[in-house]
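Worked problem 6 (solution included).
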Amino acid sequence: MKEIMNGSQLLQTLEALSNPYRLKIIAILHAERQYVSQLSRELGISRPLLYLHLQKLEEAGLINGYHEVSDTGKSMKYYELEPFDLQLTGEVIEKHRDSLPAKRKE
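Solution. The predicted structure is:
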């Protein structure tokens, strides 16, 4: 289970969740793992754009990507959701206040 350890991780997680496509990806992966082409078709976006969203989610530790070889010998990149439970309260934010970066990465 993903645990927020500091303010930087809290911001990274919130930024990863702040996009509707990324929330849709999480919803899809909650139901079952998917490979990139399936996700791209289901979301109706290009694979390059999808990879940008997947990278943000993976960097935040919310999803995990791995390669598998199909029966036909084709390498396929699958993604699955990592278990997480994000409790966002004033107490959580206060706990990480001192480790929040002074300014946001651009």
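Discussion: Helices lie at 7-16, 20-31, 36-43, 47-59, 90-95.
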